[in-house]
Amino acid sequence: MDLTKSSVAGLLATFMAASAFAQSASNESSLLVAAREEQAAVIASLEKMVLIESGSNDIEGLEEMARYSQDRLQALGAATERVPATNGQAPGLVKGVFKGNGKLRVMLIAHMDTVYRQGILDVEPYRREGNKLFGPGIADDKGGIAVVLHSLAILQKSGWNDYETLTVLFDPDEEIGSPGSGAIIAQLGSENDVVLSYEPSPAKSIAQDEGVLLSAAGTAQIKLVVTGRAAHAGAAHAEGRNALIELAHQLVQTRDLAETIPGAQLNWTTANGGTARNQIPGRAEAGSDVRFTRQGAAEELLAAIRSKVNENPLIPDTQSEVSMEIMRPMFVAGEKGLKLAQLAKSIYAELDSGTLEEETTREMPGPNAPGRNLLLIPETTGGTDAGFAASSGKPAVLESMGLAGWGYHAKNEFIEIDSIVPRLYLTSRMLVELGKRASAGDPL
Question: Residue 174 catalytic?
Answer without folding.
Answer: yes
